[in-house]
Write a structure and sequence with these properties.
Order of helices and strands: HHHHHHHHHHHHHHHHHHHHHH
Helix content: over 70%
Number of strands: 0
Largest sheet: none
Number of helices: 22
Oligomer: single chain
Bound molecules: 4-fluoro-L-phenylalanine
């Protein structure tokens, strides 16, 4: 039996888990969804969803991971017997699928970072994005991202993931804070803040706003696919898991919120509202570079900071995704970590090539594995922990947490509100698959 990895410290675990959660979803998906969902109306819904559904499911994943000390397939086998192993296997496949497109987007980010560093972003950012997002350049950038991810994973939990997270996450927080301060100096940003922070209540009761907030929260918190189970499986002892879940969820949400304080003034300052509502991807990779170009040298510096932040956020999330796949291969197939990292990561690198050739494929995969399957996974976890495994889950939770009343509330949420909300969200996520599939063939 290969020796299992372990975190060197509590802070190391928290930063790694926050690194997995904070990603492209925070810096882009959140602001975009907010812009479509009535600004602060969406933001409020999102917070409620994170508290009522996100934190309970995140806690459930941490409880399963620490209790079993296994990767998702073996962990679910231990929780529910062999008949539940398929859930763990599904998680691993979903992680594989998400990383296969996530790494392509990370590649676009890296490419724009290099372009800003070299000062070679052309005037026509639309044509530029078309050129770098599909084809050989996109494949190369995707492979570079996968290579970095594999290198970190093969070094191990403490010497790889933890060491990288402890350096990169504080750096990321600083970069984003600096960007928010810079954005506040932009003229004409006022209406941007107003749009972001004034709730348009007419939008709040739209099912799309509600389920959009739910899907975004799941993706952002990395729930429903065993990433948090995997990271928690390297936790020793009997720490306070709800406190950890709350810190992770709060940090993730705070970064998303501050990300909006960067994006909205920028969009309004440069008058990019139209381009943003045309496409989610367009705003980040086309509109923002175009705006920054108009600022000359200062814009170049901001561009470098902006795309460095995005790249760091993407890389630490990619690491958590590959760890799900690798840890399953280590636990279930008895592979060494290096072998699991290189073979697992190599297979994902190959599987990502279609995405680097077609951004519609990226969009479709996001809807399929990044939304529908995550919500489905969360629904299963809530039912498994709330109904099949509740006594053991409660005991595990209470081993490091002193409030039986809150433990009862947690189980109750997992049995009622959480599955209900997730079932409705799943329904809309499945409906959204149709248009995404259509885009593939048009
Ligand atoms: N949470 C990441 C983001 O917001 O970009 C994406 C993600 C990472 C989803 C890891 C799922 C996961 F397991």
């Amino acid at each position: 039996m290969v020796q299992r990895g372990a975190w060197g410290s509590n802070v190391g675990f928290i930063l790694a888990a926050v690194g997995g959660a904070v990603g492209l979803g925070n810096l882009w998906g959140f602001a975009y969804s907010a812009s479509q969902g009535g600004g602060a109306a969406f933001v409020v819904l999102y917070f409620v969803f994170v508290l009522v559904v996100g934190v309970p499911v995140l806690t459930a994943e941490l409880v399963i991971g620490r209790h079993t000390k296994r990767s998702p397939i073996a962990a679910l086998g231990q929780v529910g017997g062999a008949r539940l192993k398929w859930v763990g296997l599904m998680f691993v496949l979903v992680g594989f699928g998400i990383l296969s497109f996530y790494s392509v987007i990370m590649g676009w980010t890296g490419r724009l970072l290099v372009d800003f560093i070299r000062g070679s972003v052309p005037e026509d950012t639309t044509a530029h994005f078309a050129a770098i997002s599909e084809g050989t350049g996109a494949i190369v950038a995707h492979l570079v991202g996968m290579l970095l991810t594999i290198l970190v994973i093969s070094r191990g939990v403490q010497r790889g993931i933890e060491r990288v997270s402890v350096v990169l996450m504080p750096t990321l927080f600083l970069l984003i804070a600096a960007l928010a301060v810079w954005a506040s100096t932009l003229s004409g940003g006022g209406p941007g803040y107003a749009f972001y922070l004034h709730p348009d209540l007419s939008r709040i009761f739209h099912t799309e706003t509600i389920t959009g907030a739910a899907g975004q929260a799941f993706f952002s918190l990395s729930l429903g696919m065993g990433a948090m189970i995997t990271y928690a499986s390297y936790l020793p002892g009997h720490g306070n898991l709800p406190a950890k879940a709350a810190i992770i969820a709060l940090s993730d949400t705070l970064v998303a919120f501050v990300g909006g304080l960067v994006t909205f003034p920028v969009i309004f300052h440069f008058g990019l509202q139209q381009q943003v509502s045309d496409s989610a991807i367009g705003a980040l990779f086309i509109a923002v570079p175009r705006g920054l170009l108009s600022l000359g040298g200062a814009g170049q510096v901001v561009g470098i900071v902006f795309f460095s932040a995005l790249y760091i956020a993407a890389l630490t999330s990619a690491i958590s995704l590959l760890e799900v796949v690798s840890s399953a291969a280590i636990d279930s197939l008895g592979w060494t970590r290096a072998r699991a990292g290189w073979l697992g990561g190599g297979a994902i690198a190959l599987a990502g090539i279609p995405g680097a050739l077609s951004s519609d494929w990226v969009g479709f995969l996001f809807q399929l594995v990044g939304q529908a399957f995550l919500v489905f996974g969360g629904l299963l976890l809530a039912v498994i922990v709330g109904y099949l495994w509740k006594d053991a889950a409660r005991a595990e939770l209470l081993s490091g947490f002193r409030s039986p009343a809150l433990a009862t509330a947690w189980i109750w949420l997992l049995r009622t509100v959480v599955p209900l909300m997730l079932a409705v969200t799943l329904y809309f996520a499945v409906l959204a698959l149709g248009p995404a599939a259509k885009a593939l063939f048009s």
